[in-house]
Amino acid sequence: xxxxxxxxxxxxxxxxxxxxxxxxxxxxxxxxxxxxxxxxxxxxxxxxxxxxxxxxxxxxxxxxxxxxxxxxxxxxxxxxxxxxxxxxxxxxxxxxxxxxxxxxxxxxxxxxxxxxxxxxxxxxxxxxxxxxxxxxxxxxxxxxxxxxxxxxxxxxxxxxxxxxxxxxxxxxxxxxxxxxxxxxxxxxxxxxxxxxxxxxxxxxxxxxxxxxxxxxxxxxxxxxxxxxxxxxxxxxxxxxxxxxxxxxxxxxxxxxxxxxxxxxxxxxxxxxxxxxxxxx
Length: 280
Description:
Elements: H1 15-31, H2 41-50, H3 55-63, H4 76-79, E1 83-91, H5 94-107, E2 111-116, E3 120-125, H6 129-138, E4 151-159, E5 163-171, H7 173-206, H8 208-235, H9 237-258, H10 268-276
Antiparallel strand pairs: 1-5, 2-3, 3-4, 4-5
Helix pairs in contact: 7-8
């Protein structure tokens, strides 16, 4: 009796390899000539279920993708994207969640709703005199980024089980443009310094007709790396801005997810002052 051909040996992968395998499988699938252009939410959930992924994780991954875009400009690759976003799955009535976020952003971050849809709020800084003055003193630019963002988007999508996928994005393009100008200025200053230093050193070390050629060569050799080093050094500062803005968004959504007040905790000196008040 002939034995049937054995199938390919079963192979398992570690969780750390899962992301790489899925990414490659998606690339191969999209390369097929009959690949679908779009997948429905039901198809995505079914695929996730077949891969053993929890539905909550699939929903969060689906709705946490930023929607804001910014036109690229020269030098932006060194600075990074100005769009900062964060998302959570929040339990509770979605209408209550929407109202809490909107009231907080209006009252504490001095934003106003520019456009409202069933699942999204688009806000911009309020331009009335009181909000403009309060924003300067209560929300300084170096510590508070939501209040000074060019645009803020709040996306909310209801999910089964009395949950909502909540996403907040902010556009820090104004801050990135300012940092780009600073980086170009420092790069130009360093480049001129390199030109002067290279020219002087080339002429001093060689002298004569050859010294003139050496001075130009030295100037260019010193100017280019100096300018680039200064530009990239200042451009990296925007990375710190992004990190601080990300921390602000994450803290806000952490408080929303846990059901706490959306206002950040008071400063330590205010907490100590409250502890010292006599009991009534």
